[in-house]
Amino acid sequence: MKYKLFFTFLLLLPATAHALTAEQGLADAVENSGLGTRKIPEIIAMAIRALLALLGAIFIVLIILGGFRWMTSAGNAQKIEAAKQTLTNAIVGLVIVLAAYAITEFVLRAVYDSTGGGAGAGGDG
Questions:
Q1: Rounded to an integer, what distance in angstroms lies between the CA atom of residue 92 and that of residue 118?
Q2: d(CA 36, CA 32)
Q3: 97 Cβ contact list (under 8 Å, min separation 6)
Q4: CA gyration radius for the chain?
Q5: How far, in Å, CA of 7 to CA of 68, rounded?
Q6: 113-to-13, 43, 116 alpha-carbon distances in Å
Q7: What contacts 21, CB < 8 A, 6 or more positions away?
Q8: Mind giving me the DSSP string for 25-46?
Q9: Region 3-14: what's the mean pLDDT?
Q10: Which residue, 7, 87, 95, 116, has fewest beta-carbon neighbours within 10 Å?
Q11: Number of neighbouring beta carbons within 10 Å of residue 121
Q12: DSSP conformation class of 76
């Protein structure tokens, strides 16, 4: 029982020492992330762009998967049809993602310009 208490104390000791500097660590994290100096529309634009980039990567994976299925179908009509369906779905998804990007960019740019940002959603215009 004494050893359990001793080891528990040893395990918690670094946590308490770290808790003393947690506020400074949080301040450093905010400063290094750049989010503390950005406006809310900019942060939303960054998050949406990151999500759309992820969806673009998923599109590429689906195109490769559909192509691989087609190439390895060995003339089997059912496998070819499944590969075509994968490619079709990926292209439809890409069109939806591009439309979502265009709409998002338009809306965020309009919101940012109307709130006094003046240089577009990313501040780079």
A1: 34
A2: 9
A3: 52, 55, 56, 59
A4: 25
A5: 54
A6: 51, 15, 5
A7: none
A8: HHHHHHHHHSGGGS-HHHHHHH
A9: 61
A10: 116
A11: 24
A12: -
In this structure, the number of other CB atoms found within 10 A of the CB of residue 45 comes to 23
Please give the single-letter amino acid code of residue 86: T
Give the model confidence (pLDDT) of 40-50 as tens digits. Answer: 777 877 888 88
Reported pTM = 0.56
Asked if 52 and 66 touch (Cβ cutoff 8 Å), the reply is: no
| Alpha carbon distance 93, 39 (integer Å) | 31
Identify residue 113 by its one-letter amino acid code: D
Q: Which amino acid is at 79?
A: K
Tokens 């299925």 locate to: 69
> How far apart, in Å, are the Cα atoms of 65 and each of 51, 58, 77, 92, 96?
21, 10, 17, 15, 19
Dig out the tokens for 65 from the structure.
Answer: 């998967």
In the chain, the amino acid numbered 27 is A
Tens of pLDDT, residues 79-111 = 999 999 999 999 999 999 889 888 888 987 888
Structure tokens belonging to residue 113 = 């310009």
